[in-house]
Amino acid sequence: MLELIPSFVTILFGVGALGLALRGYVRREQGLIVGAFALHLFAALAQVFITRDYYGYGDMLSFFRHGGVVADGMREDFWAFAPDAVALLFQQQTIHFGWLDESSPATATMYGIGSWLNYLTQGSLYAACLLVAIGSFFGKLAMFRAFRSLFPEHLHQRMIVGMMWMPSTVFWSCGILKESIAMIGLGAATYGLVRLTDTSSSTLRASLALGVGAVIMGLVKTYILGPFAIAAGAWYYWQRGLRLSGGQALTLRPFHFVVAMALAMGVVIGIGQIFPRYALDNLVEEANHLQEVGQRVTGDSTYALTSTAPTSAAGQLALAPLALITALARPFIFEANNIMALISALEMSFVLGLLLLALYRRGARESWQVIMRSPPLVFALIFVLLFALGVGLTTTNMGTLSRYRIPMMPFYMMLLFALLPMRAPRQPVRLRRQRFSARP
């Protein structure tokens, strides 16, 4: 009963918010959105059952239980202990919980989030995960809402499926985990970024959404900000270039290119100043350290890109092709050794099949041209490639790979579905080109 009432109230809150959010969508879109909402609720319940009742351990339990100590203090004297919960959120020193201050910055933030979730849900882990799942769902819905007007109507249903229905993206974003919170921030930041590119939208509201989203990502998953900033700079450059050229093939415009790259690099350098671990000169060292740790830890799901971890930037870049394949396509079916790995392998087989089908139907050249004519697709391509490179280089476990890459999956699926024609060509791509070239 202690779990049931807070969970029921949380679901009612989510359903009410969903009812308001469905306005403005056509009936077929509404059905898919409601289905995605239900999937997120189910995934939240599954997270609790698998993590607490089956395995009995996990990051989620640690965040919630440690946060529960602070929440218990707030229930006794809210004004005395609430500042500690806020301090943990923003990675500052607490007054009463010095032992929590010794954790890593992102973990401290998760303890702070766990404390507020524990306090608001009266200690119900089910209700807390449901609340996170609802927030993650609306983060993804914000992404779709932002991109919706930039793509043809026939792609809208595909985009909902790609952004909000993929199993790994849903499951790993519905627990008290860093990735779940990051998805909320990524959704807000993406919404703000897209709205800033629209001159008819409110600049203040868009800037606020972008800023809040960036802060959330910076607190829990700082490394998302780098690819996001670079991809945003590319969007600015492509949009300005296409606008000035009347939608024709993009030519190099030095001024806008310099502005875009300066903005992107300014953000990247700023990230390094605020979070030294992700400074440019520390990235190679960090990748090397994570690879060495992965090589020392052995298990059924572990893997290594190479027998020795490279210590130079050139050595890390040499692993880039393998890292990209790993993040964009693995695990393969034959690598699955348990039910969770099998589900992930089936999902990535579907994704890889979509990629190959899109390339077959359009051809590599036409696919490239489609991307180059669309600033949102340029943004998605750059973000996915940079993020996949980072995840592929630093992850050494198939289970965590599926979890760590979820921030890129909505953009990856949007890119693939945008490239996939509605109908298969009547003739193979190569034959059509040959006949076209043979015309007088």
Task: Explain what this protein looks like in three dimensions.
By secondary structure, this protein is mainly alpha-helical. The chain has two domains: 1-220, no CATH class; 222-425, no CATH class. The protein has 22 helices and no strands. Helix 2 packs antiparallel against helix 7 and helix 3 (59-76) crosses helix 6. The radius of gyration is 23 Å and the shape is globular. The chain crosses the membrane at residues 6-25, 32-50, 125-147, 168-194, 214-238, 250-275, 339-360, 372-394, 406-424. Keywords: Membrane, Transmembrane, Transmembrane helix. It comes from Lujinxingia vulgaris. This is Glycosyltransferase RgtA/B/C/D-like domain-containing protein.
Helix content: over 70%
Q: What is the gyration radius calculated from CA atoms?
A: 23 Å
Percent of residues in beta strands?
under 5%
Number of helices: 22
Mean pLDDT: 85
- Name the structural class: mainly alpha
User: Using DSSP, what is the number of strands?
Assistant: 0
Whole-number total of structural domains: 2
Unreliable stretches (pLDDT < 50, length at least 5) are 435-440
Described by the principal axes of the CA atoms, the overall outline is globular
N- to C-terminal distance: 79 Å
Major sheet description: none
Run of helices and strands: HHHHHHHHHHHHHHHHHHHHHH
Protein name: Glycosyltransferase RgtA/B/C/D-like domain-containing protein
Keywords: Membrane, Transmembrane, Transmembrane helix
Transmembrane segments: 6-25, 32-50, 125-147, 168-194, 214-238, 250-275, 339-360, 372-394, 406-424
Organism: Lujinxingia vulgaris
